Amino acid sequence: MTDTAGPADALPLAGITVISVEQAVAAPFATRQLADLGARVVKIERPDGGDFARRYDTAVHGDSSYFVWLNRAKESVTLDLKTARGRDILEQLLAGADVFVQNLGPGAAARLGFSAPALAARHPSLIPCSVTGYGSTGPWADRKAYDLLVQCQTGLVSLTGGADEPARVGISIADIAAGMYAYSGILTGLFVRATTGAARAVEVSLFEALAEWLGQPAYYTRHTGAQPPRIGTQHATIAPYGAFPTADGKSVIFSVQNEREWAALCERFLDRPELAADPRFATGADRVAHRGEVNAIVAERLLGLDSTKARELLDRAGIANAGVNDVEEFLDHPVLAGRDRWREVRTPSGTVVPALVPPVDMAGTAPVMGDVPALGEHTAEVLGELGYSAADIDGLRAERVI
After folding, report:
1. 45, pLDDT greater than 50
2. How far is the C-alpha of 127 from the C-alpha of 353, rounded, in Å?
3. Residues annotated catalytic, as ranges
4. 101 and 40 Cβ atoms separated by less than 8 Å
5. What are phi and psi for residue 361, nearest 5 degrees?
6. Please, which pLDDT band fits residue 3 given cuts at 50, 70 and 90?
7. How far apart are CA 14 and CA 31, in angstroms?
8. Which residues span the domain enclosing 256?
9. 302 near 244, Cβ under 8 Å?
10. Does residue 222 lie within any of the structural domains?
């Protein structure tokens, strides 16, 4: 991919300053995307260890895979917000900021004096964004939440896995959903401020973000009286759909989306054109009702082919298909290499590692892809910008404010 980016000031969010009291996944995911677009993101961390995601694992040359993924291109400043001096420094930072993001525990921001209404009174042009578990109001406002709890509470776990056992989704999907809505909400807030002059507070909860993503099974369950069955790689309302083993032991996944594709599958892959007119399989609903028979026909055919030949025939029939990759195979995917989707970023350990370019390409713009900060790496620099002398900073460090 050709890099056609212009100068740094051409970055979409150049000149925007974000102060974030963040931890774990949801808020850092939102602010990392802002940093990728050129915003200055100052990450506030506790002096005694910082964001606890730094210690989730040590997979990336001693650094956490979560932290490396979520925190590139940010500045790390340590502040003890339990101290009056720490809160005063945060207040000074917010005075020059455009956005404030926090995902502290229930009620913590308000207790520290940084609720959205309090900030609106002191900093009317600031856009505050709160990421919560179940919302800042309502019967569960005081409950802590993390990703798996929310997956369970929304019913997602009951939809995932095989017939005999439910399973969590293998990524932090509730956190990611909330982070995406926080990111889009902040962008919307910046647009509203630019066009009307009004700074609007943004709030996103993990529960409500993932609830939105449960829309289809929610409608299905409410209007049929039964939730979609849990059937592994197959689809509750489409057949044939799923992963099938082949003669060489590798699985091939494919889906038939409509009657035209079903006819093509019967004629050009199954070599049984008469099945296209079989009333048992005439519509999508009919095929779902006779899923066992459909799957048996498909499975028999695939077991007579190796995976390469099976995918070749499916391609010829115009049926979307793929192999079932593990993560290592994904890392070597030809699309990522062929579209130049990897860049290098430096981690706190000093090593350089590959990182994926954000999925939105904007003409004339390249994402920042900056270093992942060490804990407190930018504290002295940022405090210096606020007017603190070297002696002042040494004193704050001695008092464990920073």
Report:
1. yes
2. 33
3. 235
4. no
5. -95, 130
6. very low
7. 14
8. 241-323
9. yes
10. no
